[in-house]
Design a protein that fits this description.
Shape: elongated
Number of domains: 2
CATH topology of the largest domain: Rossmann fold
Structural class: alpha/beta
Order of helices and strands: EEHEEEHEHEHHEHHEHHEEHHHHEHHEEH
Strand content: 15-25%
Helix content: 25-40%
Radius of gyration: 25 Å
Distance between the termini: 40 Å
Strand order of the largest sheet: 6-3-2-7-8-9
Largest sheet: 6 strands, parallel
Number of helices: 16
């Protein structure tokens, strides 16, 4: 399509039956973001995902707004495509049996109930379910995981961002802690759960081992968020010192941050000495900044960052950001603009990569969401189902169980 937007009949996969996880059956009993995101990604990759929701209430994210589109939360719509919805009161005997019947036929169960005791009372804990169905892969996503001193505590993304050390590092020096605007702990936990599920599916079905047995995948938001410390944690382990808050600057590379041009900032990433030399040539400072001993190497540029950046910005102020970006990119220097959301979502590169999906919803009309960023050849993600209305597939799913 010329618009760069994907529709259900024009996916990046050859056909829905070619998707990598076609034939995998998933029961997702989660709410909010981490679990639904994991379930949606499995659905994008071809799995049949049944979303179990509380009767009359559903996923709590259905009420998170505004905005709402014909009563449907935009938040919910963003992370629940490629699923079918069934309402079940898991504490009621009949509905409980329906859930167990679904799980006996499932390959994967995803839950985000933080308290194992509650799951045990319902017979929905890993031991009980995998006794009934040894091949089942049980994926639990929670705030703190199901082991350790804080196991069982409720947790949301913002708590994980705080406890993991990330919020204390976010923002400009001297400012208070800043929450990252997207729920990155939720997304990270959903992705790690996805990786664990796929690894467990492979291990279960690997002919070399032939075990045929599922696994318990236990992912915590705090653990997932902690991994974002990455090189920052490495610096702490090496020095024992608390990392400073650096704002937009990189802790070990300079310049690697936004810099101000005449009209607005642009971003540059000068990760090697070769790039530094090329950068200086584009700016025309080979005989000044480039030969200054304070900026001769990356370690020296880091030590003298506060002196370096104003000197660079004095030069950059002579032209607009887009002109600099074009010249820098032309010689292989990583550089780019700082986009607003509407600019990012309409960027020619994003559209050419088919990163926006359109699905026809019976109550809303066209619903747009972000595509799956996994590009595979010849067969990859597919977009088959709009985000379901609460209980939309009650009869369909019960009928399927009756015929099994």
């Amino acid at each position: 399509m010329g618009s760069g937007i994907l529709t259900p009949n024009e996916t990046r996969s050859m056909s829905p039956t070619d998707a990598p996880l076609t034939g995998v059956r998933v029961v997702e009993m989660t709410e909010a973001l981490a679990g639904p995101f994991c379930g949606m990604t499995l659905g994008d990759l071809g799995a049949d995902v049944v979303k179990v929701e509380r009767p009359g209430v559903g996923d709590q994210a259905r009420k998170w707004g505004p905005p709402f589109l014909e009563g449907e939360s935009a938040y919910f719509l963003s992370v629940n495509r490629n699923k079918r919805s069934i309402e079940l009161d898991v504490k009621a005997a009949e509905d409980h049996q329906v859930l167990l019947a679904l799980l006996e036929r499932a390959d994967v169960f995803i839950t985000n109930n933080p308290r194992m005791e509650s799951l045990e009372r319902l017979g929905l804990d890993p031991k009980s379910l995998r006794t009934r169905s040894p091949k089942l892969i049980y994926a639990a996503i929670s705030g703190y995981g199901h082991t350790g001193a804080k196991a069982g505590r409720a947790g949301y993304d913002v708590i994980a961002q705080g406890e993991s050390g990330l919020m204390a590092l976010t923002g400009e020096p001297g400012s208070g802690p800043i929450r990252f605007p997207t729920a990155m702990a939720d997304i990270s936990a959903g992705l790690y759960a996805l990786i664990g599920i796929q690894a467990a599916l492979y291990a279960r079905d690997n002919r070399a081992t032939g075990c045929g047995v599922g696994q318990f995948v236990d992912v915590a938001l705090v653990d997932a968020q902690l991994t974002w410390l990455a090189n920052i944690a490495g610096t702490y382990f090496a020095t024992g010192e608390r990392p400073p808050k650096l704002g937009n600057a990189h802790p070990t590379i300079a310049p690697y941050q936004p810099v101000q041009a005449r009209d607005k900032p642009l971003i540059v990433g000068i990760g090697t000495e070769r790039l530094w030399a090329s950068f200086c040539k584009v700016l025309g400072v080979e005989d000044t900044i480039m030969v200054d001993e304070r900026f001769a190497t990356n370690p020296e540029r880091n030590r003298h960052r506060e002196e370096l950046i104003p000197l660079l910005e004095e030069v950059l102020a002579r032209r607009d950001a887009e002109a600099w970006v074009q010249d820098l990119v032309a010689v292989g220097i990583p550089a780019g603009p700082i986009n607003f959301v509407e600019e990012a979502l309409t960027d020619e590169q994003i559209l050419s990569r088919r990163m926006v999906v359109e699905l026809e919803h019976p109550a809303i009309g066209i619903v747009r969401s972000l595509a799956n960023p996994i590009h595979m050849s010849p067969a990859g993600p597919t977009y088959r189902r709009y985000p379901p209305r609460l209980g939309e597939h009650n009869d369909e799913i019960r009928a399927e169980l009756a015929t099994c």
